[in-house]
Automatic annotation (TrEMBL):
This is DUF1264 domain-containing protein. Pfam families: DUF1264. Residues 239-272 are annotated as: Disordered. PANTHER family: OIL BODY-ASSOCIATED PROTEIN 1B, PTHR31360. Residues 1-24 form the signal peptide. Keywords: Signal.
Length: 332
């Protein structure tokens, strides 16, 4: 019976895989640079040989790219963007690896398992508390599938709106940890407006050339089922989390958020966001950096003051003076 069912679903899954196969080319830099020696030439040779000689079926099955937001269970003030690369196992189970960016240097941040409501309802009650709903992520427009046609993204969101996810992050680069220290942490998804950091969402939208508000309108016809009992347990005071015996803190990232990133050339962009008020410059360890924010039409550039060593942050007052202007980033 399962074999017949899977065979019937194959055309739909094949269409979805083909539709999603070309996505993921939007540059989203990683949050951290890892310590360690640079790759040696012989390592590069070994890598090249592996590319030519080894097959990687599990990796090649990661044909869907989703971008959304998570927060630490029990710590909604600790939020981050998450790049999901997913394999659709069947009509009711999806597995995703999560990175902190979409470049070759992105760090593997965690995993998410996604199941249908019918499978979620078979789970033990204690297990359900580890899972979160996706209805608001879809309906709010905050969950996106970059670079695919709108009709394909809409079809994918209809599949996801009634699903449930179980997510653990193992490398907390949003906390600027250069190595995967501490224990895995349970993550949750947003369930109502006003909870995701507006500047974080706005910056992501600007980088991808999308507007979450427009996607919300486009998805008004997607029916959101009632959230199944047991999911989103943090809303009823049961915020599940793994204690960290190493004593490693999992505090929120600085309020200034992630650094603004230049979108790819030729993208159709909305107005640069108010997120410029918390402009941050990326600096390598031990260096000083400054932001240059260039106003439109050849106006003179304004410089953010060089930040304290290692902070990588510009003066909010200076950045606010040029909010709404295109920006350039360069090392001081």
């Amino acid at each position: 019976m399962n074999r017949t069912r899977n065979r019937g679903c194959a055309p739909a899954l094949l269409w979805l895989a083909l539709a999603l196969g070309g996505c993921g080319d939007e540059p989203g830099p990683s949050n951290v640079e890892v310590p360690g020696a640079q790759k040696r030439p012989d390592t590069a040779v070994l890598e090249a040989g592996a590319v030519l000689l080894q097959s990687k079926p599990p990796v090649e099955a990661l044909n869907a790219y989703l971008d959304g937001f998570h927060f630490y269970s029990g710590r909604m003030d600790a939020q981050m963007e998450a790049h999901h690369y997913c394999a659709i196992l069947n009509e009711e189970v999806i597995q995703c690896v999560i990175f902190d960016g979409s470049t070759k240097q992105a760090k593997l941040m965690g995993v998410e398992y996604i199941v249908s409501e019918s499978l979620f309802n078979t789970l033990p009650e204690a297990e359900k508390a580890l899972w979160h709903s996706h209805a608001h992520e879809v309906k709010s427009g905050q969950l996106i599938a970059p670079d695919i046609p709108a009709v394909a993204e809409h079809a994918l969101m209809k599949k996801l709106v009634g699903t449930y996810g179980k997510t653990f992050h193992t490398w907390h680069t949003d906390q600027h940890k250069e190595l995967p220290v501490g224990v895995p942490q349970l993550m949750m998804g947003f369930t109502a407006d006003g909870r995701a950091n507006a500047a974080m969402v706005e910056e992501r939208d600007w980088r991808f050339g999308v507007r979450s508000a427009e996607k919300r309108k486009e998805r008004e016809d997607i029916a959101a089922p009632a959230v199944a009992a047991g999911a989103d347990a943090w809303q009823t005071g049961r915020a599940m989390q793994l204690p960290d015996p190493t004593g490693m803190p999992h505090a929120p990232a600085p309020a200034s958020g992630a650094p603004l990133r230049r979108p790819r050339a030729g993208a159709s962009l909305p107005r640069p966001p108010s997120a410029l008020r918390w402009c941050r410059c990326r600096a390598s360890r031990g260096s000083r950096a400054s932001c240059r924010l260039r106003a439109p039409c050849g106006c003179p550039p304004r410089d953010c003051p060089a930040p304290p060593r290692g902070s990588g942050r510009c003066s909010p007052a200076t950045a606010a003076a040029v909010a709404g202007a295109p920006f350039q980033m360069r090392r001081a």
